[in-house]
Each structure stands twice: as C-alpha cells, then as structure tokens.
Amino acid sequence: MIFFYVRHGDPIYKPDGLTPLGFEQADALKYRLCRNGLDKIYASSSNRAILTATPTAELLKKEIEILDWCNESYAYNELGMYNEEKFYSWCYNHAHIKKLFRSQEIRNLGENWYDHEAFKDTKAKEGTLRIRKETDAFLLSLGYRNNRQEGFYTEETPNNDRVALFAHEGFGIAFLSALLNIPYPLFSTHFTMCHTGVTVIEFKAEADGTVFPKVLTCSNEAHLYEKRVPLVYNIKI
Predict the structure, then answer these.
(1) Beta strand 144-147 pairing with 80-82
(2) pLDDT computed for residue 69 by the predictor
(3) Distance CA 46, CA 147 (A)
C-alpha cells in the first residue's frame, strides 16, 4: 500500500473553508494525485479538508469517505494548552514545552510523555491515546495491524491500494507520530506540514509478513512548483 497524507490548502478558519490560494493549491494537487490514481480517498470532517480533497475526487470520480475522528478541533482541544500568559495553542508551540520536549526526562518517558507533571491539567494523555486507538483501527481496516510494543506492523491482508487522507497539520503530527510509532515530543519538534504538502508512506511486507512503514517523502509540494502556484514560505517579506 502507498499511503498519502495531505494537509488542506491555505485555510479560512472562521468560517471553515479555503482562501483563493487554497483553492488554487487544491486544483494543482489533483493533477499530481490523479497521475497514478487513488483507490480510496478519506477526509477529515472539516470543510477545509473536504474542499481540498474534492477536485481530486471529482477528477477520479471517487467518493470521499469522511473520518470525523480526524477533525482537528478534537485534537486541538486535547493537545493544546495555556502558557503563563494564558495564551492557548498547540502544546508544541509554547517555548517552555519545546524546551521540555528536548529534555532527557521527556525522552526517558518515551511514548508515555504525557505522564510528565507539566501535562497533569491537560487532556494530552486522553487525546494521544484516542488518536493512537483510532489510527491503529484505521490501519487495521486497510490490512495492517500495529504491534505498538514492538514497533512494527503485521500484514493481515495484502493491499496494493493507493490511499489518501486529507486532513490537518496539528492533527497530522499526532496521527503520523502514532502511525510511525515515533514519540510525539520528537515528531512535533522536528516535523511540520505545508499547505497541500503530501507525505507519502509505503507499507511493504517483508518475507515474514512484518511491515516497517517507510516515509518516501514528507510534506512534499512538487505540484505547486509544477503549476507555478506561489510558495508562501519562500516569499520575501
């Protein structure tokens, strides 16, 4: 299986949608994803994710299956927190949490990082366990069982499909952390996602049926180069 994780296009958060640039990005994206086709298309229940997936789905004449558990509002409520100035944001955005995430004490906690005292008044544990559970169930539905304690998957059903999930950055960091069995503090401090950035992960079984998902490309936006869509982070201000 080839799995594509796609962040939505340039957003409008209230009301939930896309900017003109976001629609242009989604349109450019469809040519890339349709070049070799997709067998299944999933999207978060957020309108901005659905709007990003729609041009691809329409060109391929595929239905979009909505996954409400991927909606970023849930993850933001669980994995966000206040800083000393009473500003609420994703935990990894706060300077003191970034520093904590680099510490040896957090590294020693491994995937139980949420047990640190800094998160005792948050929903970090609840959210992380929810996303892990849903991620494992989703991958199992595609034929791959996560042996989380051992750090690999078992191929339950051979699958040569090309599968895309259109969702979000903040949720995606938690989701890919769970999918790849990489502790959230490490993943959140070293990876991010551009609008319509495509992360491609290969699930290829070895002779004994074990699978180690391989990231072939992370938040790649070659489709924007090809269609000459402005790359916002490259614009000099």
Answers:
(1) unpaired
(2) 98
(3) 30
| Dihedral in degrees, nearest 10, Cα atoms 10, 39, 191, 188 | 100
Q: Give the least confident one: 101-105, 196-200, 229-233.
A: 229-233
Distance CA 37, CA 92 (A): 35
- Kindly report the three-state secondary structure assignment for every residue of the chain: CEEEEEECCCEECCCCEECHHHHHHHHHHHHHHHHHCCCEEEEECCHHHHHHHHHHHHHHCCCEEEEHHHCHHHHHHHHEEECCCCCEEEHHHCHHHHHHHCCHHHHHHHHHHHHCHHHCCCCHHHHHHHHHHHHHHHHHHCCEEEECCCCEEEECCCCCCEEEEEECHHHHHHHHHHHHCCCHHHHHHHCCCCCCCEEEEECCECCCCEECCEEEEEEECHHHHHCCCCCHHHCCC
User: Which is higher by pLDDT, 200 or 235?
Assistant: 200
Report the distance separating Cα 224 and Cα 76, nearest Å.
28
Count CB atoms within 10 A of the CB of residue 2: 18
So what's the pLDDT on residue 234? Answer: 52
Q: What is the pTM of this model?
A: 0.95
Q: What fold is seen in the domain 2-234? A: Rossmann fold (3.40.50)
Domain locations in the chain?
2-234
Instruction: Quick: pLDDT tens for 88-111.
Output: 999 999 999 999 999 999 999 999
